[in-house]
Automatic annotation (TrEMBL):
InterPro entries: Diverse_substrate_MTase, Methyltransf_11, SAM-dependent_MTases_sf. GO terms for molecular function: S-adenosylmethionine-dependent methyltransferase activity. Keywords: Methyltransferase, Transferase. The keyword Nucleus does not apply. This is Class I SAM-dependent methyltransferase. Residues 46-139 form the Methyltransferase type domain. Belongs to the methyltransferase superfamily. One of its GO terms (biological process) is methylation. The keyword Transferase applies.
């Protein structure tokens, strides 16, 4: 089974959990998303890997039409039933690395808490650049890796252990190189610590007791430097919460000169 088949299998199985997840359904990023993008009723928007449709719900009332895509049919079908009030959303089964749209189609493109599942982020950004109009805006929100190797290895290993569809959380510097090479300039960015309630986080992806125990022991065995960095809180060998690094970045596609 390849990585994309893992993603389909994982999100088909866990579709309900990602609609109701507090991590995905809430968050300060959702409250400022519209302010950052400045949409209007003449615009056509694309939400890539829409998952539970949380961005689509925020953005749809502010644009003419929104296309919500996801590689997992079952996830998309389940989400569409929760967004029936929004008649201007179209649901398209699509791979983020091979979008079924013409060049220069969208005024706005978003992708939230999903890119760490993409095995080829370079192709994803190439596709964003291709289907985005000149001067169009692209908003990426995702977990990010760290420049410190031991910390970067820990968080990506932990994510993969808990979620087999996880590919890799890229470092900010890696994203910046991809943007630069695809004529996307950074307009605004914000890096923050996001607190994850441990039990909800681990059970959203796992129901196998031995796997859950493996994840717990991996965290508890981490050295002090890692525990401090991720602000791991545990009582009597039970993990309560920890933090991860999240990055919100707004880009603009450079106008093509004739």
């Amino acid at each position: 089974m390849n990585e994309k088949q893992y993603v389909k299998q994982f999100f088909s199985k866990n579709k309900q959990a990602y609609v109701t997840s507090s991590t995905h359904a809430n968050g300060s990023d959702l409250s400022v998303l519209v302010d950052w993008l400045q949409p209007n009723k003449d615009m056509i928007a694309l939400d890539i890997a829409t998952g539970g449709g949380h961005v689509a719900r925020k953005l749809a009332p502010n644009v003419n039409r929104l296309f919500a895509t996801d590689i997992t049919k079952e996830m998309l079908e389940y989400t569409s039933t929760h967004l029936q009030l929004y008649s201007n959303i179209n649901y398209i089964i699509a791979d983020a690395e091979s979008l079924p749209f013409l060049d220069n189609t969208f005024d706005i493109i978003t992708c939230r808490i999903a890119a760490h599942h993409f095995p080829n982020p370079d192709r994803f950004i190439q596709e964003v650049q291709r289907v985005l109009k000149s001067n169009g805006r692209f908003l990426l929100i995702d977990n990010v890796g760290l420049e410190e190797p031991s910390i970067d290895i820990f968080i990506n290993s932990l994510e993969k252990m808990r979620d087999y569809s996880h590919s890799r959380s890229l470092k900010i510097t890696e994203w910046e190189k991809l943007f630069s090479s695809n004529h996307l300039i950074v307009l605004k960015q914000e890096r923050r610590k996001k607190t994850l309630p441990y039990n909800e986080w681990v059970h959203r992806a796992l129901d196998n007791k031995s796997k859950i125990e493996e994840v717990k022991q991996y965290i508890l065995a981490a050295n002090t430097k890692i525990k401090d960095y991720f602000q791991i809180k545990a009582e009597h060998e039970e993990i309560k919460e920890f933090t991860i690094d999240e990055w919100m970045v707004l880009c603009q596609k450079l106008s093509v000169q004739s």
